[in-house]
Design a protein that fits this description.
Blueprint: H1 7-47, E1 60-61, H2 71-76, E2 78-81, E3 85-86, E4 91-98, E5 111-118, E6 121-127, E7 137-143, E8 153-162, E9 166-176
Parallel strand pairs: 1-9, 3-9
Antiparallel strand pairs: 2-4, 4-7, 5-6, 5-8, 8-9
The structure holds fe (ii) ion (FE2).
Length: 177
């Protein structure tokens, strides 16, 4: 009695399986090399950032045309959110974000502080550490006494400092009733 072992028909699928495994290993290795390289580049950018534009450190930077901000201005010009009209002696909040597109926070590139001036008076400042735990946004609780705005108007001035892109300022007028 002849019993078919069945090994002949199985030979082809075994070869295919072997090739598949080799192809898979090759692909996996290539993937590991590529992802390793990407990680190295990311680490280099993280700890040894690209050269800074020194002209940004020569003065205070502003969004040149607030209606058509450049990508750099969008992520650096402070955005001041305020009620527009406030009552003297009553509490309100002013939020300052950096910026319209929230600026990144990492050990190589971060916002060092946000400051708020009310008229010519320094009102407050929030300092940020570089580990990236916080987003570059601060909320100030404000009360304007009547005698601080005799003509019924005040200007809010927000500044922020980016370690790679310098000092940036925005301002907004409010009415004080
Ligand atoms: Fe920046």
């Amino acid at each position: 009695m002849i019993v078919h072992s069945g090994h002949i028909p199985q030979e082809a699928p075994q070869k295919e399986a072997l090739m598949d495994r080799r192809t898979f290993i090759k692909t996996a290795l290539a993937g590991t090399v590529v992802s390793g390289l990407t990680a190295k580049i990311a680490a280099a950018e993280r700890y040894f950032p690209a050269k800074v534009d020194k002209s940004l450190f020569e003065g205070v930077n502003h969004a040149k045309n607030p209606a058509a901000k450049t990508p750099l201005e969008k992520s650096h010009a402070p955005v001041i959110t305020h009620p527009g009209s406030v009552k003297a002696g009553e509490q309100f909040t002013v939020e300052v974000s950096v910026g319209e597109t929230l600026h990144p926070m990492s050990p190589a590139h971060w916002i060092e502080y946000i400051e708020l001036r009310i008229g010519n008076e320094p009102a407050g400042r929030v300092d940020f550490q570089a580990r990236g735990f916080l987003k570059p946004r601060a909320v100030f609780t404000v009360v304007i006494p009547k005698d601080a705005a005799p003509d019924g108007k005040l200007t809010l001035v927000a500044q922020q400092h980016c370690n790679l892109h310098g000092l940036w300022e925005s301002s907004a007028d409010i009415t004080v009733l």
